[in-house]
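Entry 14: structure prediction run for RNA polymerase sigma-54 factor. Input pasted below.
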Amino acid sequence: MGLELRQQLKLSQQLVMTPQLQQAIKLLQLSRLELLETVQQELMENPFLEEKETEADVSEPAEVLTESQAEEELVRNADWENYLGEFSSTSKQATGRDSEIPEEGMSFEARLASKPSLEGHINWQMRLSNFSELEIAIGEIVLGNVDSNGYLQASIEELQSMVQASDAEIESTIKRIQRLDPVGIAARDPQECLLVQMDVLGYDDPILVSLVTDHLEDLEKNRYKPLARKFKISMEELKEYLDMMQTLDPMPGTNFSSTEPHYVSPDVFVYKYGEDFVIILNEDGLPRLQMNAFYMDSMKGAANKEKEYFQEKMRSAAWLMKSLYQRQRTLYKVVESIVGFQRNFFEEGVTKLKPLILKEVAEDIEMHESTVSRITTSKYVSTPHGIFELKFFFNSALDLNDGSQVGSESVKALIKRMIADEDTKKPLSDERIGEILQDELDVNIARRTVAKYRSAMGIPSSSKRKQYF
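Run finished. Output tokens:
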């Protein structure tokens, strides 16, 4: 059979994810801070993009363009007036960004202080005390094996493999470190930590020492009466011992934890104005982009290779601006839909949160569920009742006796409120909470469902919540 070349026509369809579409999808799911970083990076890399210096005239409403018209407008006018500011349910007064003026003769970095670490704090004390060079070397190894709660996570044998010292020298150094501030640091277990603190404070009562040494588990499980009988003391005397133990710190390293607080910058603000709710997108810090006129003019007389590069960068700039436009429009429409579905929440609070799924919002704004899922990822809204993630408003349903439904988050909020108001000497059981919900809300909820919701909120069982004093 001979080999030959032939030409053949074939018609087929396939789904292709263009780079522009990938960029638009990526922008949808970025958080606010990630979006700011992405835009700043594009400003640095793309010469066709620049930040507008003058604010748009808010007295004239911006014209809403279609996608094809938007790209033509970008190329023709090298600008997009108010391309983000139009997505607001009220006119937004243009405000300039505040500028920080450093103190005279001092840089901004020089006015910031770092948070002291546990290792640095103990090291400072060792070097100011009469620790020998060997003890300081051992102490540094010990501190390197202390967890965030202040407990030593290495055995004497493991420490000995890291530093040339005997068991006695290592143990002696650990005991000296345990008596530095915070007292009890580098203990192997809670008993040792508390006993060191008691020794420093002079708590040498044998009953108190026995409670810490042998009965921490009994205290954790509220087995007070057997302990009172064992030590032949009254419940009031036992309470005095417990009050003394409350002055001790079982986790001395937590005050030096390296975990930093996570600050949330809302993407959307929802305010109540009269009988309506006003939706305003948070544009603070987001650059207002426009096409660079200099490079637009330079493209006209450029050579072929240069023109190809210019056209690529110009299309990239246009797509970024259009993707930002679409992102803000989608975010506004999703929040507007959520406010419509969850109006009772915005009026009265979390106990009025209704069951809601992505499909309902997607059908309301005529978009795909995946788009709604992406735009609600890592996005936060500031409401009259606090700051919530957009995904918070989507929750499952529990059936009521009258055939209607209530949101699971509303039931969780009611459970939390009931437990907060309960008598601590007679805490509510899961079964009793279910009965109260049945009486007050007519909600069909099983005891195991109450237990599941309670565990999800980090609330202990009734036996552990009970207080005897």
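Notes: The domain at 396-465 is CATH 1.10.10.60 (Arc Repressor Mutant, subunit A). Will compare against the previous run tomorrow.
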